[in-house]
Design goal:
Elements lengths: L12 H9 L1 H25 L7 H24 L12 H7 L6 H29 L3 H26 L4 H20 L9
Helix pairs in contact: 2-3, 5-6, 5-7
């Protein structure tokens, strides 16, 4: 059983060029994304406290994302980079969430699958960054993040499979992969994760 799908379209080389040309801005956005990912995992716990089968993994994921934020922050400090004064709206995530079903159960599955898609795209992009970096420690750090994000992509699909039939999960996941490609294609290319 495959627990996630690959992205439908690869990130553009222009995106990687933008990141490498303004890596400090990328780090600021990356830090924001890690904070948001931690909060998102914990928001599932707050909104669905009855889903006890997945709460331990959600807590673990939330802690891991917070640890990633700490690591990115330490990297930023070593480079003399400050956190953004305020977190900007993530048009990528917003573009996905606005396509969610509205019913409680349907929205629950959609949000889990969106989390999987976002983590999968993050893994793809962190791998690109790791491959492009020459510095040994930073290269190692982004390789670790790439594997972690890929794992999270699997985890959120596995969570959905706890509550929904496999055929429905994979049919909806395939639909989300297509929507994600439309959203990512419509975004401005900049030194940001999304």
């Amino acid at each position: 059983m495959k627990l996630n799908l690959d992205v439908a379209i690869p990130s553009k080389a222009e995106w990687l060029e933008a990141v490498m040309q303004n890596f400090d801005a990328f780090l600021q956005d990356h830090a924001d994304c890690e904070r948001k990912a931690s909060a998102m995992a914990m928001s599932f716990v707050a909104k669905y406290p009855d889903r006890s089968a997945i709460i331990p993994e959600l807590i673990e994921t939330g802690i891991e994302e917070l640890e990633h934020f700490q690591q990115v922050y330490e990297l930023m400090q070593s480079r003399g980079v400050e956190l953004n004064s305020s977190m900007t709206e993530d048009l990528y995530v917003k573009g996905l969430i606005k396509q969610c079903h509205s019913g409680r159960e349907e929205r629950f599955m959609d949000r889990l699958l969106i989390a999987s898609i976002v983590e999968t795209r993050g893994a793809e992009r962190f791998k690109m960054v790791a491959d492009a970096l020459e510095d040994g420690e930073m290269k190692k750090f982004y390789k670790m993040l790439w594997t972690s994000e890929a794992k999270h992509g699997h985890i959120f699909v596995k969570m959905a499979l706890n509550y929904f039939p496999e055929d429905k999960v994979y049919e909806r996941l395939a639909w989300w992969v297509e929507r994600e490609s439309e959203v990512i294609e419509g975004l401005e290319i900049k030194a940001a994760l999304h």
